[in-house]
Design brief:
single chain, 3-stranded mixed beta sheet, 374 residues, 7 helices
Length: 374
């Protein structure tokens, strides 16, 4: 028997490819699913060898595996009946009566895929998530650059699942009782015994009576039909801190979809997008802008007035002999540091404006300056 041929892979197959091939064939040939028991045994035998690097190396070199007990070869298969010894439930591997080692971690994964639940008793048990929990919601919130200067509140109206106003999320008509599910005793899960070629195994499955909720109302709510939630609209206040920037996300706990029958609600995630400003460019917590000055202001120096992002006027001194493109810094007039103290800076790039039209007098004066070498 060629193990590679059994799994339908090449000798150069990776461990991930071996595992995928085994999963696919195990699903197809599992006896509980109406598959071929003999073929299923061959698939398992091939996988136990090829998934182990040491055994695979022996098999590739000698065509068989030597484990000290001569448990099986590529031709002979298992020496005796195909029995499993589970041993210590916490162990990751065990050995059958015929000396074949099995990786119980992988076997556990396969059984969970077959039966849809965790093992009962000493086997592995899956971590069950609360299926009633409300879903999270993500929204995009666009704000102006000026809004980043101080903390603000953005109101968002969302169409979503909200708590039923009649039963207040309980799922039962007011005045009626909610009883513990008799089938699962309030756990939301029931045990099922599966009989396989390996023996009988207990698995956990969702209770069919209460659909995994653990409780059943005597009289379902007439409005939400027992869900505890209905489609509605809610206006939510999102607190936007100062200094926030594009792609930062604000989480509002419990403002996502309402949970089923009073279960925990999901969260709201607001992803911020800051609009581009026509005058100021943001780079981190610093702001950049441009201001035009005349040739005489650049040559002689001057004091000019510019607008800040807050809208206030700032006096800026232009040094004598300023060249076009010179950048001046105004400390503390940028964006507040997010979650900290202080602010960034404002940088003003000075551009010398060349007039396109001149009066007669201006031309005469410039001509005199030209004669003076300016």
């Amino acid at each position: 028997m060629d193990y590679y041929e059994v799994l339908g892979i090449t000798k150069s197959a990776s461990q991930e490819e071996i595992k995928k091939a085994f999963h696919k064939l195990a699903h197809k040939y599992h006896p509980d699913k109406g598959g071929d028991e003999k073929k299923f045994k061959e698939i398992n035998e091939a996988y136990q060898v090829l998934s182990d690097s040491a055994k695979r190396a022996q098999y590739d070199q000698y065509g068989r595996v030597f484990d000290g007990n001569e448990g099986f070869s590529a031709q002979g298969g298992p020496a005796s009946g195909w029995n499993w010894a589970w041993g210590n439930p916490s162990a990751s591997a065990g050995r059958g009566e015929d000396g074949v080692e099995f990786d119980f971690e992988n076997v556990g994964e396969i059984f969970e895929e077959f039966f849809g639940g965790g093992f009962g008793g000493g086997g592995r048990r899956s971590n069950k998530k609360d299926a009633r929990k409300g879903k999270d919601i993500q929204v995009d919130v666009e704000i102006a650059l000026e809004r980043t200067l101080k903390e603000s509140i953005e109101k968002i109206s969302l169409a979503k699942q909200v708590v039923c106003h009649r039963c207040q999320g309980v799922g039962a008509e007011p005045g009626s009782k909610v009883k513990e599910c008799f089938s699962c005793r309030g756990t939301g899960q029931v045990q099922q015994v599966k009989k396989t070629i390996f023996g009988s195994y207990t698995t956990l499955a969702t209770c069919p009576e209460c659909k995994g909720e653990g409780t059943i109302p005597e009289k379902p709510c007439n409005v939400c039909k027992g869900e505890g939630r209905i489609k509605g609209e809610e206006t939510i206040e999102v607190h936007i801190p100062a200094g926030i920037d594009t792609n930062q996300v604000i989480r509002v706990d419990g403002k996502g979809e309402a949970g089923k029958k009073g279960a925990k609600a999901g969260n709201l995630f607001a992803r911020i997008s800051v609009k581009q400003h026509p005058v100021f460019e943001r780079r981190g917590d610093d702001l950049f802008s441009q201001s035009e000055i005349s040739f005489s202001q650049a040559a002689l120096g001057d004091e000019i007035e510019i607008k800040s992002l807050e809208g206030t006027n700032i006096l800026l001194e232009v040094p004598t002999g300023t060249e076009s493109g010179k950048v001046l810094r105004i400390s503390g007039k940028g964006i507040p540091h997010f979650g900290g103290f202080g602010k960034g800076n404002l940088y003003i790039e000075l551009k010398i404006k060349t007039p396109k039209k001149l009066s007669k007098r201006q031309k005469e004066l410039l001509d005199q300056l030209h004669q003076e070498g300016l």
